[in-house]
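Can you make up a protein sequence with its backbone structure tokens?

===
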Amino acid sequence: MARRLYPNHKFEVFDEQNIPIDNSSIDYIFVIAVLHHIPDELIQSYLLEFERILKPEGKIIVMEPYLCKERKLNNRFMIWYDDGKYIRSEHDYLDLFHAGRYECQVVKKFTKCFLYNEIFFTAVPTAKREL
């Protein structure tokens, strides 16, 4: 469907183990409403690949729905409505990135459409591993 809607763009299917992009060649990686569909162990694989393809000053920009202690009604709605099986708390998302050796900065937390808690944060690798 994406190819039909955007014929001038390139789309590829890949797995988390081997993103077909050169080492240290990407400035920004945008991850928008994806992580809550992926289990923790696969996210760690993606984080390794993201580190490989990011330039030394590269950054991951993330926006995800998140569970918030203060907004129980919103949490229930998101769990009921959303197809993602892995909606996490703010700390759970940040802990995943910290475990992958990323430094995170929360930019903003907000509510979308009255009932969706969203978190917007950036992540940068703390130190490049040997490739």
